[in-house]
Amino acid sequence: MDTLSVLSSCVSAMAPLSIITATGALMTYYKAFDKSTNDMIANSCYKFFFPLFISLNLIAATNSDKLSDEWPLLVIPILAILISSIVSFIHIPLCKPPHEIRFTMHYVLVFASSGSIPLLLTQGMCKYGPLKGDDTCDNAASYVYIQLIPFAVITWTYGFVLVYTDHLEKRKLLKVMKNSEEKHKESEEEEALESENLGRNNVEILIPPNYTDTPKREDEKPKTLKYILMSQLIRPVPVSCYLGLALGCIPGIHDIFTNSDAILNPLYNGGYLVGYSGVILSQMILGSNLLLSRKNKKLVSKFYIFSIVALRCILITSIGLLIIWGLWTADIFLGDKTMAYVSFMNFATPSTVIASVLCQILDVGIEDTSVVLFWMYAFSFFSLTISSYILFLVI
What we know:
The chain has 395 residues and is mainly alpha-helical. The chain has 15 helices and no strands. The longest helix has 41 residues, at 158-198.
């Protein structure tokens, strides 16, 4: 096996993402993107682009007759998230992430990219690398989108709650600061009124201008994390997974959309392009935030960035390598190297860019997440090449 062919496959996957990220930074430099633009893009991806893209691809990828053989693609993403979570929970007390974004950093470490990067890498391996000429390469896209089902549901429920927890902490901190400022202002007003009253000879008492006889209404109780978790199960992205899987399992629906001569094929192709534009825009947010926050003070230290990149790209990747090798030896993949490689991507790819989208929606940890993702994507050029080479040596 040629090392250069593996490197070429990795470069062919990561180079387009690097160009898209750089484009986001360029658009920000020319004032086309700013924070408000990024906020609108993130919300549009969450509510429209991602659900459309996922549902259409699942309709095309799902085949009820093959699901019994593809069950590892539904289980391994859950296993990868579980293992990454354990690593992250050990990492938190050891490296002590900034308190304000500790759960956001937990999200960044736990959730790998399960969409565009695995697809581009697998297609690269099929075109230039060790999978070239393999018959199972025809199923590469289907495998990637099938494994996206558990990943998308978990990342937009459990993952959303993680980032939302830091969002609540930020709200509490802002509320405390606001109350402190109000009390300080009221104290100054009362002191001024007392001084004025002492200078009067009569017994007139001045009423503070902001005084009211009616008690202040208590702020509404924040929604519990359990409520947020359950409500996220019926949000656009998880619902698109249920819908795409259900429609894909109905006999005939797949052909109505995907056959080139089918009446709904133009609708499917148009929807796919619209949905994919959201994937591109979400990657551009990363580049935009890197430029917007370049002069801002970061909460994460250089050592912490190094630790989280090393854990994601070296430790978790190595654990995944052992697991996939063990499953391959046990013939879980039925000799399908493409399925084995796609499954390995749950451990080996850098963190998902959805982290940047979530931070943008909830307005927490945007600058720090962008910096961590940047270094993780940069290092993944090397980690993906080495780990992919080793994997194809043992399977």
